[in-house]
Every structure is written in structure tokens, then in C-alpha cells.
Design brief:
57% of the residues lie in helices and 11% in strands. With 213 residues, the chain is an alpha/beta fold. The chain has two domains: 84 residues, Methionine synthase domain (Methyltransferase, Methionine Synthase (B12-binding Domains), Chain A, domain 1, Orthogonal Bundle), CATH 1.10.1240.10; 121 residues, Cobalamin-binding domain (Rossmann fold, 3-Layer(aba) Sandwich). The chain has a five-stranded parallel sheet, with helices on both faces. Helix 7 links the parallel strand 3 and strand 4. Bound molecules: CO-5-methoxybenzimidazolylcobamide. The site of CO-5-methoxybenzimidazolylcobamide (B1M) has 36 residues, from helix 3, helix 4, helix 5, strand 3 and strand 4. CO-5-methoxybenzimidazolylcobamide binds next to helix 3, helix 4, helix 5, strand 3 and strand 4.
């Protein structure tokens, strides 16, 4: 197995080369490389490098967006292999990035990992208002609501959603999990969430744990 291919994926991603990212991701998979390794050491590591360069003002929003699209091209190759057909879902998860927040890369990874772990996913997308979460939770048989936030300014929308679910009489019917770069266990506790996960892999463990509670 060729570990250099992960380096090639990272480099193609940082160049924003969608075709190369998709091609190399497919190649790595065909070589038998575990999907988790391709994700962690290829796509996610590449995006982390982009994040660091963005933070250091070495690159700007357009480059970040192009890299994000390249990352999605890689994820699209892996996603079908996460889903094991014919297996009963562990539970149903309603997921979204909260109101005021357009970041969806982490949320999509969490969503994909949960799907791969046999959860049924209903993805409401980005900029999801508390009301939209509440309406969806009312109309569907949901086990877990999973909220993502990448901005300190959007984190409070998580609190608003939890309060809204309480007012709608739904709070005891669902478990609530929160995450995203600025979110901490302390914050999750302070807004009355049932669980927090710092990354996508932990989110899968947390979701499984919440179903048992
Ligand atoms: Co923006 N951005 N961004 N951005 N962006 C950050 C988040 C920022 C930290 C950059 C910085 O200043 N250093 C900063 C936030 C500061 C803060 O509030 N603390 C920031 C800002 C300020 C902004 C704008 C305001 C910039 C502007 O316009 N002036 C603007 C806001 C727009 C809006 O949302 N209203 C903005 C815009 C954008 C882009 C559109 C250009 C783009 C988003 C593209 C997209 O998502 N489709 C973007 C990006 C890409 C970033 C950075 C560079 C990378 C984020 C990312 O995708 N990381 C980011 C800087 C950085 O992180 N270094 C930055 C990779 C991803 C895999 O990680 O999302 O953390 P992450 O997800 C992880 C975990 O957090 C966790 O699992 C994931 C996988 O392990 N996780 C969960 C996430 N959700 C979870 C949910 C769970 C559990 C775990 O349970 C439910």
C-alpha cells in the first residue's frame, strides 16, 4: 500500500484540484486503504492545512472555498462505501449547522461518519433556524438532534434551539448532541445538551452512547 498517496491527496486538496482529489481518493480506496485513513490522513489533514494557512492570512476565502469543494469531491467518492446496505439503522439523526452559520465541512464529515456507522441521517443543511429544527423534529420520528457551529456568534443558536424544543414539548423525546470548533463540553452542559463531541469519530461514539441512555 502506498502511503504517499495520502500526501498526494493532501497536496491536491490544498491546490484545490477537485479532479485530482477525486481520482487519488478513488485510487487509495481501490488499493485497499481503510476509508478512515483516507479521511483522517488525507482529506481532513489537507483541510486542516488549509485552515492554518487561512488563519495565517497566507490564503483567503476564495482559495478556502475551492479547497472545500475539492474536499467534497473526495468525500463523494468515499461516502457510498460507508453505507452498509440492508442493515437496520441504529437510530435517526437530524443534523444541521445552526442559524447564522454557513460552515458545513465538519458537519458533513460528522454526517457521513454517522451514516457509515449505520445511523439514518436527515441533513437540514446550513443556517438552520431553531424553528426549522423544531418543525422537522415534530414531523419525523427522530432519536437525536445534532447541531454544528463553527462561529462563536452562532453558538447561541444552539441554546435557542434547545429552549425552543422545550417550549414545543419535544425536549424529552430527543437527545441533543452539539459540536464544532468553538464548542466545548462546558458550553454543551451550560445549554442543556445531552452530549458533546470534539470530532467526527467521537460523535459516532457519543451518538451510540446517547441511544442507550
Ligand atoms: Co470560516 N471561520 N468564516 N469559512 N472558516 C473559521 C471557523 C474561523 C475559525 C477562521 C479564523 O478566523 N481563524 C473563524 C471563526 C472565528 C470564531 O467565531 N471563533 C471563521 C470566520 C470568522 C468566518 C467568516 C465570519 C469570515 C468572514 O466572512 N469574515 C465567515 C462566516 C460565514 C458564516 O458562516 N456566516 C466564514 C466563511 C467561511 C467560508 C465560507 C469561506 C468557509 C466555509 C466553507 C464551508 O464550510 N462550506 C470557511 C472555512 C472553511 C473556515 C475554516 C478555514 C475551516 C473550517 C473547516 O471546515 N474545518 C475555519 C478555520 C479553522 O478551522 N482553522 C474557519 C475543517 C473541518 C473538518 O473541521 O468544522 O471544526 P470542523 O469540524 C470538525 C469538528 O469541529 C467536529 O467534527 C469535525 C470533523 O472532525 N464537529 C462536530 C463539527 N461539527 C460537529 C457536530 C457534532 C460533533 C462534532 O455533533 C453534532
Amino acid at each position: 500500500m502506498d502511503g504517499n498517496i495520502l500526501k498526494d491527496i493532501r497536496e491536491a486538496l490544498t491546490r484545490g484540484d477537485r479532479a485530482a482529489v477525486a481520482g487519488l481518493t478513488g485510487q487509495a480506496f481501490d488499493q485497499g486503504m481503510p476509508v478512515k485513513d483516507i479521511m483522517d490522513s488525507g482529506l481532513i489533514a489537507g483541510m486542516e492545512a488549509i485552515g492554518k494557512r487561512f488563519k495565517a492570512n497566507e490564503i483567503f476565502i476564495p482559495e478556502v472555498l475551492i479547497a472545500a469543494k475539492a474536499m467534497h469531491a473526495g468525500i463523494a467518492i468515499l461516502e457510498p462505501h460507508f453505507t452498509k446496505s440492508g442493515i437496520k439503522p441504529l437510530g435517526k439523526v437530524l443534523i444541521g449547522t445552526v442559524k447564522g452559520d454557513l460552515h458545513d465541512i465538519g458537519k458533513n464529515i460528522v454526517s457521513m461518519m454517522l451514516r457509515g456507522a449505520c445511523f439514518e441521517i436527515d441533513d437540514l443543511g446550513i443556517d438552520v433556524s431553531p424553528q426549522k429544527f423544531i418543525d422537522a423534529a415534530k414531523s419525523k420520528d427522530i432519536d437525536i438532534i445534532a447541531m454544528s457551529s463553527l462561529l462563536t456568534t452562532s453558538m447561541n443558536a444552539m441554546r435557542d434551539t434547545i429552549n425552543g424544543l422545550g417550549a414545543a414539548g419535544l425536549r424529552d423525546k430527543v437527545k441533543i448532541m452539539v459540536g464544532g470548533a468553538p464548542v466545548t463540553q462546558e458550553f454543551a452542559d451550560s445549554i442543556g445538551a445531552d452530549g458533546f463531541a470534539k470530532d467526527a469519530a467521537t460523535a459516532v461514539d457519543k451518538a451510540k452512547e446517547l441511544l442507550k441512555r
